[in-house]
Amino acid sequence: MAIRTEEQLIAFVQETVRLTPVTDIHTHLFAESFGDLLLWGVDDLLTYHYLIAEMFRFRPDLSYDDFWRMSKTERADLIWQTLFIDHSPYSEACRGVVTVLNRLGFDLSTRDLESYRAYFREVQASDYIDRILELAGVKTVVMTNDPFDDYERERWSGGGSTDPRFLAALRIDPLLNGWDSAYMKLQQQGYAVTQDFSGDTAAEVRRFLHDWIGRMNPLYMAVSLPNDFAYPEPSLRGRVIDECILPVAEEAGIPFALMIGVKRKVNPSLKDAGDSLGYSDIGAVERIVSGHPNVKFLVTMLSRENQHELAVTARKNRNLLIFGCWWFLNNPSLIEEITRMRLELLGGSVIPQHSDCRVLDQLLYKWDHSRTIIAKVLGDKYTDLLRAGWRLEEDEIRRDVEGLLGGAFWTFLGKPDPSAK
Ligand SMILES: [Zn+2]
């Protein structure tokens, strides 16, 4: 059916974005079979590292050591009191918790954390996973799977994910960011590698990657990189990329995902909450992407200042798909600015958002909040088209939204969306 008026258009876009199921292309969530790796519930939500960093700003009197000595429940109590009772929770990370509690149907007027906890003591993980995915409108979740983690490796020897909604991504950070300890773990797994990368090391790393690709069937290989990432580079990281990862990505036909711009441990006392960001050299992305036209690259960058040049780089390289508003960019004002710019430069050949959730419940707020912004920006773009004289069909808008919420990812992979009927 054709869209006739601007009011009809906006309502239809909002409704379509709200109801179209998402493929969430990067998360730290896990299927139930991964046991303790899956975090969920109000205490995990409150003790997430975003909120820890925000709490400390209001508590100059509290020593870091005292906080880290607390139990999870005590930390959650403290964060609830500081960020939700003593102050209004309008930062994005805090508003996210409010959205989650509201969407779960809790009475927010009581502000009674104990009563919210009571629900989580009764519910089973499998039922909760179903409930959250349903409420969040997420059909497929891409995990982050670490073959260097002993606990996770055991889960894979037990068969990995049997839940078709949870798909794998092979995370290889230790190979690129910590070779001096990674090589020992490879040796323990039976690979003949050396610390100085001599002899058969490169071939053995390739064998390791192929073995894990066979075991996990990952959609891509992924790494997070520091803001001073350089390419090419006469370093061990440079060799691992050139001699191992790029050839394997091409042979296996899966993308290499780079998440660039992390500055680790700018305040080590904050532990997981102590990482920051820095501006990165887009030249590194230009060179790796254009130098390997037969490899597919998924790239997201952490610095706001890199976003425009990253979008332009994607215009120049069809083997590059940019995705998401990552971590410190996941704020409404920045998501709107970045999404608007990307749609203007790239049309629908982009993945506007991924959730990066570590706690299952966060899916509710990440996608609620992002959908609102994506619908707003898309509504503006279609309104401009309508005013320019273009006539739009409802089916065309549906097609476009499906692309932005995951279809473009599957097309880029060259694989059918497994959840498609
Ligand atoms: Zn992540």
Task: Describe this structure as you would to a colleague.
- It comes from Paenibacillus validus.
- One of its GO terms (molecular function) is isomerase activity.
- With 421 residues, the chain is of the alpha/beta class.
- The chain has a single domain, classed as Metal-dependent hydrolases (TIM Barrel), CATH 3.20.20.140.
- Helix content is 52%, strand content 9%.
- The chain is built from 18 helices and nine strands.
- The strands form two sheets. Strands 4, 5, 6, 7, 8 and 9 form a six-stranded mixed sheet that branches. A three-stranded parallel sheet has the order 1-2-3.
- The relative contact order is 0.15.
Cα end-to-end separation: 23 Å
Say how many strands there are: 9
Mean pLDDT equals 97
> How many domains make up the coordinates?
1
Q: For this structure, what is the CATH class?
A: Alpha Beta
CATH fold-level name: TIM Barrel
Name the CATH architecture: Alpha-Beta Barrel
Strand content: 5-15%
> What hetero molecules are bound to the protein chains?
zinc ion
Low-pLDDT runs of 5+ residues are: none
Keywords:
single chain, alpha/beta, TIM Barrel, six-stranded mixed β-sheet, binds zinc ion, isomerase activity
